[in-house]
Write a structure and sequence with these properties.
alpha/beta; DNAb Helicase, Chain A; Rossmann fold; 2 domains; nine-stranded mixed sheet; 19 helices; about 50% helix; elongated
């Protein structure tokens, strides 16, 4: 006869190893709390012991067999967990402390598998219901799986000790980072000096008048991410304005520095032709995903979550082009729709722990002013965009409004809002014939 208990995913030895290691070395507790909650343990006694350890640690009390036992005894749980002898056995048989994160991840994986079995059984039961619609059931299944992944991968409430530890680790990265960025480098080094790259889970809004170069700027950032070939994770681009091949055309022309008009007309010189195929070969090896078919924000979010779970390494960046073209059902007016879209993007960036670039159109007000540089009130249709974004960037090119401008070929990139840092304006060269923004001086990204 098959022992049903043995079929339930769990590893008692791993649970014992983690608890024993925590008892003999309290400094390890911080490294485990970000991975495990008490519910991750299969053995109920182990759940109680782990809760006692965390309670003592949070109160800054010593954590050992005696204090854990006293904590359990105060809740009438000591005898049920094996008493002081079991606590001593855990400490005595603890393996190398260096393996505690590995064992913790094994426990977490088994916990996820057990919850997945429960969710699957629930979905299977509903699938047998003849009145259950297929579409609704598929959405429910995907939502539950997504929620499971989110809940099991993160703890929503932590003691400040864990947060401080994470802050110090991130500081160490910033101190040691030779590229002066913490997040994914944009390739525009003056911009990276201000925003420290694209940091998760920031939402970065790039706004400009129609035709100034929002899409080009965003695509240049994506191109720059893979130019140095250090980033292996995927970027996903959602376009409601252009087809996938049109985005590809722009990236190829920018990467190859090929005149876009000649490219579209098919009138390429031999040098341009060579540059096109060389650029196409290089770009095709980049881990860039494109989607021009999704319509609603809910579809975009589902696709981002799906790709983040299934591509190797997950996503490093999401790009949405552009907000005002993204559809949202069930809202009474367009401003409410944009507000829902904006909040959904913010929530998704946090859930997936990735930066998301969203492009935004402006209203017509800048064209009516003498000084046409965009300001926050120019954001089209919803003030929620300004509220939800972490970094707000305006693009301004004087030659777009004045053919006689003395600043032809110069783009102003104004970091108008930066929730966690400074603001300011940087300058880039704009080469419209190549669909390309460039740094104004030599750099590591050229």
């Amino acid at each position: 006869m098959i022992d049903k208990q043995s079929l339930i995913p769990h590893k008692i030895e791993a649970e014992q190893a983690v608890l024993g290691s925590l008892i003999i070395d309290n400094d390890l507790i911080v490294s485990v709390t970000g991975i495990l909650s008490a519910e991750c343990f299969y053995n109920e006694s182990h759940q109680r012991i782990y809760r006692a350890i965390i309670e003592l640690f949070d109160k800054d009390d010593p954590v050992d067999e005696l204090t854990i036992g006293a904590n359990l005894k105060s809740k009438s749980e000591l005898d049920e967990t094996g008493g002081y002898q079991y606590l001593a056995d855990l400490a005595e048989s603890a393996p190398s402390a260096g393996n505690i994160v590995y064992y913790s991840k094994l426990i977490k994986e088994d916990s996820m598998l057990r919850e997945l079995i429960r969710v699957s059984c629930d979905i299977g039961r509903k699938a047998r219901d003849p009145e259950q619609g297929l579409s609704d059931l598929l959405i429910e299944a995907e939502t539950k799986i997504s929620d499971l992944s989110k809940v099991m991968s993160k703890k929503s409430t932590v003691n400040i000790k864990s947060a401080v530890r994470e802050s110090m680790l991130k500081l160490d990265v910033r101190v040691d980072n030779k590229y002066e960025t913490v997040g994914v480098p944009t390739g525009f080094y003056d911009l990276d000096k201000i925003i420290s790259g694209l940091i998760a889970p920031n939402v970065i809004t790039i706004a400009a008048d129609s035709g100034v170069g929002k899409t080009t700027f965003a695509l240049n950032i994506v191109e720059n991410i893979y130019r140095r070939s250090e980033e292996k994770r995927a970027t996903i681009i959602f376009s409601r304005e252009m087809a996938n091949f049109q985005l590809s055309d722009r990236i190829i022309c920018s990467s190859g520095k090929v005149d876009a008009t000649n490219y579209m007309n098919g009138k390429l010189s031999q040098r341009e032709s060579d540059d096109v195929y060389k650029a196409a070969s290089k770009i095709s090896k980049s881990n860039i995903l494109m989607n021009d078919s999704v319509v609603s924000i809910d579809q975009m979010i589902h696709e981002m979550k799906y790709q983040h779970r299934n591509v190797e390494g997950g996503l490093c960046l999401g790009v949405i082009d552009y907000l005002q073209l993204v559809e949202c059902q069930g809202k009474s007016n367009r401003e409410q729709e944009i507000a829902y879209v904006s909040r959904s993007i913010k929530r998704t960036a946090k859930d997936l722990d990735i930066p998301i670039i969203q492009l935004s159109q402006l209203n017509r007000d800048p064209r009516k002013r003498k000084n046409k540089r965009p300001i926050r009130s120019d954001l089209r249709e919803s003030a929620s965009i300004e509220h939800d974004t972490d970094i707000l960037i305006f693009i301004y090119r004087d030659e777009f409004y004045d053919e006689e401008s003395q600043d032809k070929g110069i783009a102003e990139i104004n970091i108008d809002k930066h929730r966690n840092g400074g603001t300011g304006t940087i300058f880039l060269r704009f080469k419209g014939e190549y669909n390309r923004f460039e740094n104004c001086s030599s750099n590591n990204y050229a």
